[in-house]
């Protein structure tokens, strides 16, 4: 008889999945983010695994949760005072089932092995959902670019790439940007790679500048893609739309800024944005051009918004719960970092009548928060589907590099829109197939897992 395990994310957990999860917890005891990511996926897969008893015999889940390769290395550099500083670098090459490893680099003090593994694991599923031939990987360092000079950042990036170049290539592993790694950092990394390899291998990094092989619309892609996914999700549920909806967006990087721009273009009213220090609340609607000036040009803090719009309000962050989630809104888009939406924040959002959550960051909602949203009939657009626009456009950049050809902004944007529509439809169909209603969290996991499992079976025990 099938043994059922009670679970909040799905109706029950399959016995085999439960066993694998317990093994993951034992083997990775100090890696809470990685365990959380694995548990969130395994909690939703029972309907699929129940139909495939052969998965346990070939240890399919055990192989899927174990990275193919995990690389750790030291990164020394000299700061402007002449002091040698040593950081730790990582690259996890998690899965090459459907293509070369693909995933960003994160430079942030919080980076550790658990963070990198959780991001890499998420990336496998996200990349599978795009329908493009890219595997899953992730990397980064505990280096913090904030407060560093351009020369210090350049020296660090050159040192980081001196080691990383041994492990990457346009047909092997293709890094991109993430938190703390933007066009500036990608430029320094690419320059050092080219210098060491003595070849112009344009497809080895994505998120490059337009002057040396980058793609139009790449900077905007994750934020735009998030709004395209939200549009489809709202349309599929009582034919709702973004028109006239109040929106709050955490974060002030590329994802948040361009989600804000596209939400405004779609008729929504964005009333709040945040950074790590606090949030701006502007009932007249966020001035997106001013946000771009502050964050992209001046690299400043959001409270400077008040200099131009003194009628707006600024709330400092005092604890783990960002004040932005206390503002009454129809749609909340967490676009900052992992686990930024706590259960307390989720309760406040539900109390204030939130209709939908769009995860622009990677795993931005704590597990309990996600469960609370679903329990209270709030639509949730899961990160591995909703923020896949960035990596999808990175794959389009790789394609352009291979062809020695550039698409126009509109061409890339149209391809991105189509990809996000297809991703939503895959999530919706998977949820419907297994009678999960509008649980797109489970739908995304099942759709991606089904593709990965088929590829894993086909390629043998490797």
CATH homologous superfamily assignment of the largest domain: NAD(P)-binding Rossmann-like Domain
Give the C-level CATH assignment of the largest domain: Alpha Beta
Radius of gyration: 21 Å
Biggest β-sheet strands, sense, barrel: 7 strands, mixed
Q: What's the pLDDT, averaged over the residues?
A: 95
Distance between the termini: 31 Å
**How many structural domains are formed by the residues?**
3
Structural class: alpha/beta
Q: CATH topology of the largest domain, anyone?
A: Rossmann fold
Describe the 3D structure:
The protein has helices at 15-27, 32-42, 46-49, 54-57, 60-64, 113-130, 150-164, 183-197, 218-236, 254-265, 288-297, 305-308, 343-351, 367-375, 383-386, 389-403, 409-433, 440-458, and strands at residues 4-6, 12-14, 69-78, 84-95, 101-107, 136-141, 173-176, 246-250, 269-274, 278-281, 313-316, 331-334, 356-358, 379-381. It is of the alpha/beta class. It contains 18 helices and 14 strands. It has 3 domains: 1-66 and 438-462, Glutamate Dehydrogenase, Chain A, domain 3 (Orthogonal Bundle), CATH 1.10.285.10; 69-202, Leucine Dehydrogenase, chain A, domain 1 (Rossmann fold), CATH 3.40.50; 219-381, NAD(P)-binding Rossmann-like Domain (Rossmann fold, 3-Layer(aba) Sandwich). Residues 1-7 have low confidence and may be disordered. The two termini are 31 Å apart.
């Amino acid at each position: 008889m099938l043994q059922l395990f009670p679970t909040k994310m799905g109706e029950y957990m399959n016995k085999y999945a439960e066993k694998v999860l317990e093994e993951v917890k034992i083997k990775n005891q100090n890696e809470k983010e990685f365990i959380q990511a694995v548990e969130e996926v395994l909690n939703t897969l029972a309907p699929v695994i129940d139909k495939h008893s052969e998965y346990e015999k070939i240890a399919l889940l055990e192989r899927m949760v174990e990275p193919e390769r995990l690389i750790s290395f030291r990164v020394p550099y000299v700061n402007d005072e002449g002091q040698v500083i040593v950081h730790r670098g990582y690259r996890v090459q998690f899965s090459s089932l459907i293509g070369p490893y693909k995933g960003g680099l994160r430079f942030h003090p919080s980076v550790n092995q658990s963070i990198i593994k959780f991001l890499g694991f998420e990336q496998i599923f996200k990349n599978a959902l795009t329908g493009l031939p890219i595997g899953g990987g992730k990397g980064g360092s505990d280096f913090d670019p904030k407060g560093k000079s351009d020369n210090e950042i350049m020296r660090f990036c050159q040192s980081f790439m001196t080691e990383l170049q041994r492990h990457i290539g346009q047909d092997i592993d293709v890094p991109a940007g993430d938190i703390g790694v933007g066009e500036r950092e990608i430029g320094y990394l690419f320059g050092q790679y080219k210098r060491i390899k003595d070849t112009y291998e344009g497809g080895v990094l994505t998120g490059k500048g337009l002057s040396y092989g980058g793609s139009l619309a790449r900077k905007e892609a994750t934020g735009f893609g998030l709004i395209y996914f939200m549009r489809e999700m709202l349309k599929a549920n009582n034919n709702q739309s973004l028109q006239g909806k109040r929106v709050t967006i955490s974060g002030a990087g590329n994802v948040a800024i361009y989600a804000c721009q596209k939400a405004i273009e779609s008729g929504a009213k964005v009333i709040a944005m945040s950074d790590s220090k606090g949030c701006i609340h502007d009932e007249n609607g966020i001035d997106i051009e001013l946000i771009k000036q502050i964050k992209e040009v001046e690299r400043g803090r959001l409270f400077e918004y008040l200099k131009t719009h003194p009628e707006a309000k600024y709330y400092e962050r005092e604890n783990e719960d960002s004040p932005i989630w206390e503002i009454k809104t129809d749609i909340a888009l967490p676009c900052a970092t992992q686990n930024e939406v706590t259960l307390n924040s989720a309760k406040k959002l539900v109390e204030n009548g939130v209709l939908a959550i769009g995860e622009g960051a990677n795993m931005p909602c704590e597990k309990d928060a996600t469960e609370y949203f679903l329990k209270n009939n709030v639509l949730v657009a899961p990160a591995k589907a909703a923020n896949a626009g960035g990596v999808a456009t990175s794959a389009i950049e790789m394609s352009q590099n291979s062809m020695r050809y550039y698409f126009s902004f509109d061409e890339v944007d149209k391809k991105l829109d189509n990809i996000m529509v297809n991703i939503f439809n895959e999530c919706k169909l998977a949820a419907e197939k297994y009678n999960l209603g509008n649980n797109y969290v489970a739908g995304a996991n099942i759709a991606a897992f089904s593709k990965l499992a088929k590829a894993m079976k086909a390629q043998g025990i490797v």
